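[09:14] KT: can someone run the structure on this one? pasting the chain below
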Amino acid sequence: MRKYFYYLLSVFLFSQYSNAQDRVIGKSFATRSVVLGQNGMAATSHPLATQIALDILKKGGNAVDAAIAANAALGLMEPTGCGIGGDLFAIVWDGKTQKLYGLNASGRSPKGLSLDYFKKQRLKKIPAFGPLPVSVPGTVDGWFELHKKFGSKPMAEILAPAIDYAENGFPLTQLISWYLNRSVPFFQSKDFPNIADTYINQNNGELPEEGEIYKNPYLANTYKKIAKGGRDDFYKGGIAKTIAEFIKNQGGFLSVKDLALHKSEWVEPVSVNYRGYDVWELPPNGQGIAALQMLQILKGYDFSKIEFGSAKHLHVFTEAKKLAFEDRAKYYADMDFFDVPLEELLSDEYGEERRKEIGKRAGKYNAGEISAGETIYMTVADKEGTMVSLIQSNYRGMGSGMVPPKLGFMLQDRGELFSLKKGQANTYEPGKRPFHTIIPAFITKDGKPFVSFGVMGGDFQPQGHTQIVMNLIDFGMNLQEAGDAPRWDHTGGASPTGERTTNTGMIRTESGIPYSTLRSLMGKGHRIGTARGVYGGYQAIMWDEKNKVYHGASESRKDGHAAGY
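[09:31] RB: done, structure tokens below
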């Protein structure tokens, strides 16, 4: 009881004194004003990657060229969250055709690995690390699909900045140094091969600290091969053979054939209208439509009469999240294998039905009856009006622990997100794309581009997307304030892996949420807690159609940087 008292006291004190800056205008929690530019804008989670994107734009490249260049740099500079061993999703507003395009560049499970294998091994869930959760890495093919459709600069020129930094080094930022010095020793403790050779031996035998120079010459060589040989060198050539042989030696199943068969998919983004704004996400196997389902429920409330950060705000938001995530667990999966009822899930009528289930106290819900995971996010815009919303990840931070020899990157562990229970939408099958947490987003207004944005952070992402949309539209915040506003996260409920909790879950809040709100939420039956690093990271670009100006934003929770010209 005494520990609980001290916890509540600390929450109260933090909530009263957490705002350190005293700006003369704007919200008290804002860390800075928005960044403005007429010709182009880039917002990424690393200042050097942002500068690379701007350099590409200034040299005549377009937003897609710049996005690929920045993403390649982030794979080097933030190996704790992304890289070419992972998957990629993107939404592109093309300035020429004035249309949105969606790209699903996620990989599939090995053809030679069956559900029966897991049962014979008496596994109730797919392991988080090692060779078994490794699925085909889709990022490189995603780059080339984006480039083929929209790119203008040669790929060798696009990858050149990342190659240069990989060879000559760059200073590690505070956050990535912290993650790297936690993650690498963890994988070493599991005796996974090539960890030290890739991340330590190339840096004078020590893991660099903040401000020290980090290099990855193996990754530089891999990028050079991709620049010269194209995506086929990665999926059919020497890189593919190295990956497949390594995974086989580790007892896994990813094969040269699996890599050779891989292809990305262009998909139609889906949307709901929220108070006159069209909010766009990609259809499953990702979880983007969970944000749209939440918005369909929440638009039935008048937030002009509900204060931001109040108990009423957090209560109805959390209940909407619970309802959407029950449907997420039941219906979201690779649409090549399961007929996801998109139209019904996103309809106004279904949103109204689900809204009626929300009461005055914390509830437990089931999925509606319908007939029929560290990451990087970045966004770039150019002078022709093209805007790219791109997200890319390995899952569980660095990934599976599987580092093929002398390639410079770790393979993802997205396969962990399959269910091993027969008959579910997301049940494991060979050649199937796993349920995915990473989601890019976009907002249009009256058929024109408005905001390209994303929020990193596993299961938090749909909650983060919804909070950003509400901050902009319901609470009138500017682009920077919308990301800096204090956040909250609800954990618990059903999972696409087949797991579920028996209670109402827990609301975890940042220190900016006042104690009066937490006290009222506890009175409604909610369990309250705190957590470190679960509230995501945010980047965004807004287009001001009237003044023809881009607004850029990035936040202080990560090392991010927005810049324009």
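[09:33] KT: thanks! The two ends are 56 Å apart (CA to CA).
[09:34] RB: yep, looked fine to me
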